[in-house]
Specification:
Layout lengths: L33 H20 L2 H16 L12
């Protein structure tokens, strides 16, 4: 499918019936037990509370750590970092 320039406007596709369809097997599946749904809600709420109360510095340290870990690639042949 060829793309067209958007000229600064959001690209919109027409809404089709396929976009609103769902797998017919899903409505027949049983839902989780109430204690399991509650546990999931507690976990989600705890993560949300931690993220809203975390400082920018914490996010900075985590981001720096992740970027450093992702950027390290060992040399071919099992070489080590050179000083």
């Amino acid at each position: 499918m060829a793309t067209q320039p958007n000229n600064g406007r959001a690209f919109r596709r027409p809404l089709t019936e396929d976009a609103l369809s769902f797998n017919p097997a899903v409505p027949g599946l049983p839902i989780a037990h109430p204690w399991r749904r509650g546990a999931a809600m507690v976990i989600d709420g705890s993560i949300a509370a931690l993220l809203t109360n975390a400082t920018v510095a914490l996010f900075g340290f985590v981001a720096a750590f992740v970027l450093l870990r992702m950027s390290y690639r060992p040399e071919a042949g099992g070489g080590h970092l050179r000083a």
